[in-house]
Amino acid sequence: MNGQDESNVGALVENHRAFLGFLEKRVGRRDLAEDLLQEAFARSLSSAPQGASDESLVAWFYRVLRNAVIDHYRRGGTTERALAAVAREMEEREEPDLDTRNAVCRCIGILSAALKPEYAQALQRVEVDGLSVQEFAAEAGITANNAGVRIFRAREALRKRVTSSCGTCAEHGCVDCTCKKPGT
User: Do residue 167 and residue 132 come from a single domain?
Assistant: First the structure.
C-alpha cells in the first residue's frame, strides 16, 4: 500500500462510526449496516479518488454508501417479489383428482425420501398431506415466502431424481409407470 492509499484508509477509518450511523439509519439494522459498510470499504478502496482532500474523500464515500443502500433495496425488492410470486403460484394451482394422484409412479415416494430432510418434509406436508403453503410455513416456523421457495426447490430436486431414475417415463407424467424402480 502506498502513502496515498494509507491516507485514504485513515480518513475513512476515522469516519467509521459516522458511516455506520448513516447506514443504520437507512437500513434499520446494525448488523446489516455493518455488512454494507464492510462491503463498501472492500469494493471502493482501490477506486478512491487519488490526491483528494480528506473532506472530498469522505463526501465521495458517502455517495458510495448511498449507492450501496440503493443496491441493497433493489436486490431485496426483486427477491421479495420473486418469493411472493412463487407463494401465489403454490396457492393458486389446482390439485389432481384422487385417481390421478394414486396412478402416479410409486417410485416418487422412494425418491423423495432420498432428498434433503427439509425438502422431503415440505413435499410430504404440502403435496401428500395437503397443507397450504401458509400452514406449512407456520408449522415449520418459517415465512410463507421461504416455504414457497423450499417447496419449489424440493420439487426441482425431486424432478431431477425422477428424470434420472425413470428417464422417458418421467417425461410423460409417470402414469402407467414401467421404469425400473429405485433399489431394484
Answer: yes
Grid coordinates representing 58?
A: 469522505
Determine contact, residues 133/151, Cβ cutoff 8 Å.
Answer: yes
**Which three cell numbers mark 52?**
483528494
Tens of pLDDT along the chain (184 residues) come to 445 556 677 878 888 999 999 999 998 889 999 999 999 988 887 777 777 788 888 889 999 999 998 888 888 777 777 777 777 776 776 665 665 555 555 666 677 778 899 998 988 888 878 888 889 999 999 988 888 889 889 888 888 887 777 665 555 555 555 555 545 4
Helix ranges (H only) for the chain are 3-14, 16-27, 30-44, 54-92, 98-103, 107-113, 117-123, 133-140, 144-166, 168-171
Residue 167 and residue 179 in contact, taking contact as beta carbons nearer than 8 Å: yes
What distance in Å separates the CA atoms of residue 66 and residue 59, rounded to the nearest whole number?
A: 11
The domain in which residue 70 lies consists of 3-89
* Whether residues 52 and 36 fall in one domain: yes
State the pTM of this model. Answer: 0.43
The radius of gyration of the chain's CA atoms, rounded to the nearest angstrom, is 26
CA dist., res. 146 & res. 142, Å (int): 6
CATH number at residue 13: 1.10.1740
